[in-house]
Amino acid sequence: QAQLVESGGGLVQPGGSLKLSCVASGFTLDRYAIGWFRQVPGKEREGVACMDSSRDSNQYYADSVKGRFTVSRDNAASTIYLQINNLKPNDTAVYHCAAGRTITTAQRVCQWEFGIDYWGSGTTVAVFS
């Protein structure tokens, strides 16, 4: 059974950093496009950082996180990461990882959730003064 399990969320002060992890099981991660999405109650889910399945590992970042978020993957460890630096209060959300066996662009994965097959249940990031 395919599964994604996130960890690494927590309470952080503005300007702090976190590294989220997402372990995949039940499928071969290196054939999948991946992404991190976040959701705040009452708002639509937002794709913040995505990577396609190509050898170039092309990435896409939402404007709100460019320069602060970095998505990466370790296929041997079946793990996806999201490094978050310079956290801001409006980064507070539940962060979900996702994976899809698709050859589409990282931008389409993030902006339209195109081709996603699996979702994690989420890890909470709260940024407070």
Task: Give a description of the structure.
There is one protein chain. The protein is mainly β. The protein is 5% helix and 46% strand. The radius of gyration is 13 Å and the shape is globular. It has one helix at residues 106-112, and strands at 3-7, 10-12, 18-25, 33-39, 46-51, 59-61, 69-74, 79-84, 93-100, 118-119, 123-127. The model has no long low-confidence stretch (mean pLDDT 96). It starts with a strand and ends with a strand. A hairpin with a 7-residue loop joins strand 5 (46-51) and strand 6 (59-61). The strands form two sheets. Strands 2, 4, 5, 6, 9, 10 and 11 form a seven-stranded mixed beta sheet that branches. Strands 1-3-8-7 form a four-stranded antiparallel beta sheet, with no helix packed on it.
Please mark out the parts with pLDDT under 50 across 5 or more consecutive residues, or reply none: none
Radius of gyration: 13 Å
Helix content: under 10%
Strand content: over 45%
So what's the oligomer here?
Answer: single chain
Overall pLDDT score:
96
- Secondary structure tally, helices: 1
End-to-end C-alpha gap: 41 Å
In total, the number of strands is: 11
Order of helices and strands: EEEEEEEEEHEE
- Overall body shape: globular
Outline the secondary-structure elements.
Elements (H helix, E strand, L loop, with lengths): L2 E5 L2 E3 L5 E8 L7 E7 L6 E6 L7 E3 L7 E6 L4 E6 L8 E8 L5 H7 L5 E2 L3 E5 L2
Features:
seven-stranded mixed sheet; single chain; mainly beta; 129 residues; four-stranded antiparallel sheet
